[in-house]
Amino acid sequence: MRKILLPALIIVGALLISTKLYYLQILDDSWVKKSDNNAYKAKYEYPERGYIYDRNGTLMVANQPSYDIMVTPIEMSKEIDTMEVCRLLNVTKEYYIERLNKARIYSPRLPSVFLSQLNKKEFAAFQEKIRRFKGFDIIKRSLRDYQIHAAANVFGYIGQVGEATIKKNTYYKSGDLIGRQGVEQVYEDVLRGIKGVKYIQKDRFNREIGPFKGGIYDTIAIQGKDITLTLDSELQKYGESLMFEKRGGIVALEPKTGEILALVTAPTYDPALLVGRDRSNNYRLLEKDTLGIPLYDRGLLAEYPPGSPFKILTGLIGLQEEVIDENTGFTCRHGFSYGRGAFMKCHDSGTNRLNEGIYKSCNTYFANTFKLTIDKYPKSESGVNAWSNHLKSFGLGNFLGYDLPPGRKGLIPDAKYYQRYYPNGGWRSSTIISNSIGQGEVLMTPIQLANMMATVANEGYYYTPHIIKEIEGGKIDEKFTTKHYTTIDKEYFEPIIEGLYDVFNLGTASSLRVKDIEICGKTGTAENFTKINGVQTQLTDHSIFVAFAPKDDPKIAIAVFVENGYWGSRWAGPIATLMIEKYLKGTVSRKDLEVKMLTKGLKEEYAKVISGKPFSINK
């Protein structure tokens, strides 16, 4: 047996090796194409990225030609005139040495970017003399050409791919461009197209002698697919102009579809700043603005206390839990007493029913409603969990699932949350009563607030907000056409909507009415705290406004946050009203509001953080 075993093993091993060699050498010659040797050189042809259009067919993002100077270290001649290369490309000798060293580290045999994103004029002189600079080559690419100077946070930008991505995805090579942030990142696979490649045969002297293997491996570049966004470019530009010298966010949705009509963050920047050779310098300058934070998308990332607009949800939950109805009344004596020495102030007085509670924005009404909701259950834990689950059915306290990269969950606390802070118990409805009016622990992003208003407009359901409307030759994700229902029955939305309508007729937004448009809305003021030099400091309140219109056939739902904006009807309310009229009519009649929003801002208010001037509290 032993005599047979050893020869058998040798024979089997030989057969396996022979079979593998036959496969590699005869059947599969892909290794020849892929191997990194001196037999061929791969030249890539880069496709144009897909164009980006708005919902009305307006071209927003096109392309412009750009040129990269590439270097392959092993092909460089020792006789290259370094100083002439530097002069022609307007770079320093230190830059030349640094880029060449990086290229050698990446790969001596593969091309690396030496200088990127040159325009025609910049590379023309070098092109004339490139034959004298062996090892250097020129690759034509396309850069973005912005047709509108707005929506930078929506578009994102394109930049050079990083080494980590190259390792993960074999499609990308050093120097390739990739979408970063915004739709450029999310729809990168759609927009980028497919690179073409030509393999050039080289002789033993490293000279190009023709197509490798007759060009059988060559491919042509395929242009990226065009996409249409849900954005209304005119509304987007208008929203950004209204946020003149203000900080905050605006989100406008189409309730019937969840399509994002406008997504404004302020301050913002011109997307063209992140194109061309100055892109890196411009990005660093934007990044250094740690006060305005223009690279921070407040519409998606900023978590604010929602203030009085949250009373809409408090009322809906109270109706669903049957602790109130539309005729339930509570007496307000300029506030709500919820314990010894504990008093929630209110600007109102007298007895209010639900409708009056909404349009007067009575804190006492909704504090009572919240307390009854929690206390309906035998234990506070059960009451808070029931309240929390209702809120989460609106998409709150979680990512909404929209098709843009950044996002925050906000915060909807439940019993577990409070048990961490009160491990020995002792908390009850009065302990967390501030939640009733959107203060307390509740946090929401502007897009969550806008989606809340879209849900109210739809009387109980919403579609996941999204920015994509159409992909050339493709379909959008089914999740954007799927309804999400809340735990609130449809019948309870009608009295709330009537109250929101009366906010404009009789209440806190009566000065913002627009002729021939029935708007339902809610003003809001939220307390604002931050740490300055390690001290918890109360800043000027945020101005908040949410609305939808028209009342009986809603076509737009909107949320506006203006940081340090005093109160809802001062800044956020006018902006929301103007945006609604602009979208529905194409023009605005409230020129008084428009002029103020376009020319007045809060620059002095924001400077108080540095100047030390006192903030305006409770004004």
TrEMBL record:
GO cellular component terms, A-Z: plasma membrane
Indicate the principal place this protein occupies in or around the cell: membrane
Q: Which residues form a coiled coil?
A: none
Positions of the Penicillin-binding protein dimerisation domain: 46-209
- GO molecular-function terms, A-Z: penicillin binding; peptidoglycan L,D-transpeptidase activity; serine-type D-Ala-D-Ala carboxypeptidase activity
Q: Which UniProt keywords apply?
A: Carboxypeptidase, Cell inner membrane, Cell membrane, Cell shape, Cell wall biogenesis/degradation, Hydrolase, Membrane, Peptidoglycan synthesis, Protease, Transmembrane, Transmembrane helix
Which InterPro entries does the entry mention?
Answer: Beta-lactam/transpept (IPR050515), Beta-lactam/transpept-like (IPR012338), PBP_dimer (IPR005311), PBP_dimer_sf (IPR036138), PCN-bd_Tpept (IPR001460), Penicillin-binding_protein_2 (IPR017790)
Penicillin-binding protein transpeptidase domain span: 248-576
Looking at the keywords, is Transmembrane present?
yes
Its membrane topology is listed as: Single-pass membrane protein
What is the official name of this protein in its record?
A: Penicillin-binding protein 2
